[in-house]
Specification:
The structure holds two protein chains of two kinds. By secondary structure, chain A is of the alpha/beta class. Chain A has two domains: about 1-35; about 40-240, P-loop containing nucleotide triphosphate hydrolases (Rossmann fold). Chain A is about 45% helix and about 15% strand. Chain A has helices at about 5-10, 10-25, 25-35, 55-70, 125-130, 170-180, 195-205, 225-235, 240-270, 275-285, 290-300; strands at about 45-50, 75-80, 90, 105-110, 140, 160-165, 185, 215-220. Chain A has a seven-stranded parallel beta sheet with strand order 4-2-5-1-6-7-8, sandwiched between helices. Chain A is globular and about 65 Å long. In chain B, helix 2 crosses helix 3. By secondary structure, chain B is α/β, with parallel strands linked by helices. The termini of chain B are far apart. Chain B has helices at about 25-35, 50-60, 70-85, 100-110, 120-145; strands spanning about 10-15, 40, 60-65, 90-95, 115. Classes of the chains: A alpha/beta, B alpha/beta. The interface of A and B includes residues 87 and 94 of A. Strand 3 (about 90) of chain A pairs parallel with strand 2 (about 40) of chain B.
Chain lengths: ~300, ~150
């Protein structure tokens, strides 16, 4: 049996190996992804927000509720790679230990490996494999992010931005990027002082915008308070009422994904054929013999 | 970037048994990260089932278990058995703690890798894992069927 067929049948070891292939950009990954099929059935939910807001704990609490409905849940948890050593400490599983041994939950930790936006370059493909293996929903937890890292919107059907009280200044700065990216805003750690003030601040920030305000929910992931409301709201988005906006989002996602993949492939081919020209141009620019703009023009000359 | 290393080594670091502090495991996890490894840290009081379950989902090259409870002659063999039963026999199982040389030898006969006592220089641990994982990847590539 092929690896793709094993993954579709829910073989967890095959899924783990497939995830490694896509994460490593292995030559076998393209064939695997083509084989595994295209159907996008799972609701892909992005969970993002600043470090310490409680993203992992919330993912764990949501997962427990979906398991109660007998739904299989896939989790991709991204943590940052060191730009210096390439090493990474992936610690999200610590908050998800209650799901250990549950065949209906699959958790994979990914290092960002230099990708921007709090994600990993393999995230689209990894989500496809979990989808093909029958997990629905698929949750993607990003690196703890600050301002403007909104790549998750291009991966997820639904983006949940998780914030916590006691970070007032942070939220000021984040209004522009992250909060606009949210389909759902969650104020977690709602049992802490300042939660209501944060909700009020988010509400007034949302009113200033020219777009419909996203729902704002309060949760306490450690006790489970408010998490069921969040789960119901997320499930409702795949129901009939929100089906249209979800379809629009998927179209947008397909656009962004294809463009990114073609850009990557073209850049790879382009530079593979021009390593020497690049080296010569770089020397000329560094020595002051030519300007960067002129060097770029020369490099691009004759390129369609 | 010219001498880009091969794919990062993925290792699961777990604290097994019932004793409740994981400072040592955290120090090792940080050292391995700084050596360029992708370290999946799973925290305290991990059972063999939890360790193997996580290791297989994460498709790691190696498992490092920190263990000070004296239960090494039970826990390490259980992990090895589970790995064999569930298709993870190529994963290196190593670790550290206070383990008498006699016990370490017996465990190695069962398929456990080298075990390291307190005070082992971290560089030695890093070098051992690098060498051992490289050898296992080499073997895996030569026997893998597409």
């Amino acid at each position: 049996m092929t690896l793709a067929a094993e993954i579709r049948q829910g073989d967890r070891r095959a899924l783990a190996r497939g995830l490694t292939l896509v994460e490593n950009g292995d030559p076998a990954a393209a064939a695997l992804l083509a084989d595994v099929g295209t159907a996008s059935r799972a609701h892909r939910i992005g969970i993002t927000g600043p470090p310490g807001a409680g993203k992992s704990t919330l993912v764990s609490a949501l997962t427990a509720l979906w398991r109660g409905d007998d739904r299989s849940v896939g989790v991709l948890a991204v943590d940052p790679s060191s730009p210096f050593t390439g090493g990474a400490l992936l610690g999200d599983r610590v908050r998800m230990l209650t799901h250990s041994g549950d065949e209906g939950v699959f958790i994979r930790s990914l290092a960002s490996r230099g990708a921007l936006g709090g994600l990993s370059a393999a995230i689209y493909d990894a989500a496809d494999l979990l989808d093909a293996a029958g997990f629905d929903p698929v949750l993607v937890e990003t690196v703890g992010v600050g301002q403007g890292e909104v790549e998750i919107c291009r991966v997820a059907d639904t983006t949940v931005v998780v914030l916590a009280p006691g970070a007032g200044d942070v939220v000021q700065g984040m209004k522009a990027g992250l909060v606009e990216a949210a389909d759902v805003l969650v104020v977690n750690q709602a049992d802490r002082e300042g939660a209501d003030a944060l909700v009020a601040a988010l509400r007034s920030a949302a009113e200033l915008r020219d777009a419909p305000a996203p729902p704002i929910l309060e949760t306490t992931a450690t006790t489970g308070a408010g998490v069921d409301e969040l789960r119901q709201l997320l499930d409702a988005r795949v129901g009939d009422a929100e089906g249209e906006s979800l379809r629009a989002r998927r179209l947008e996602r397909a656009h962004a994904r294809l463009r990114a993949a073609v850009d990557r492939a073209r850049a790879h081919r382009y530079w593979a054929a021009r390593e020497d020209a690049l080296a010569r141009a770089a020397e000329a620019v560094a020595a002051g013999d030519t300007t960067p703009a002129a060097a770029v023009r020369d490099l691009l000359e004759g390129d369609a | 970037m010219t001498d880009a290393p091969s794919l990062p080594i993925r290792i699961l670091v777990a604290k097994a048994g019932l004793d409740g502090h994981d400072r040592g495991a955290k120090v090792v996890a940080a050292a391995l990260r700084d050596a360029g490894f992708e370290v999946i840290y799973t925290g305290l009081r991990q059972t063999p089932e939890m360790i193997v379950d996580a290791a297989l989902q994460e498709d790691v090259d190696a498992i490092g278990v920190s263990l000070h409870s004296g239960a090494h002659m039970t826990l390490f063999p259980q992990i090895i058995e589970l790995l064999k039963a569930r298709g993870g026999e190529q994963i290196l199982l190593t670790g550290g703690g206070i383990i008498p040389a006699d016990d370490a030898r017996k465990l190695q006969e069962m398929g456990v890798g080298s075990l390291f006592g307190p005070g082992t220089p971290l560089a030695e641990l890093v070098e051992y894992i690098r060498t051992e994982v490289a050898a296992r990847r080499e073997r895996g590539n030569s026997t893998a069927s597409p």
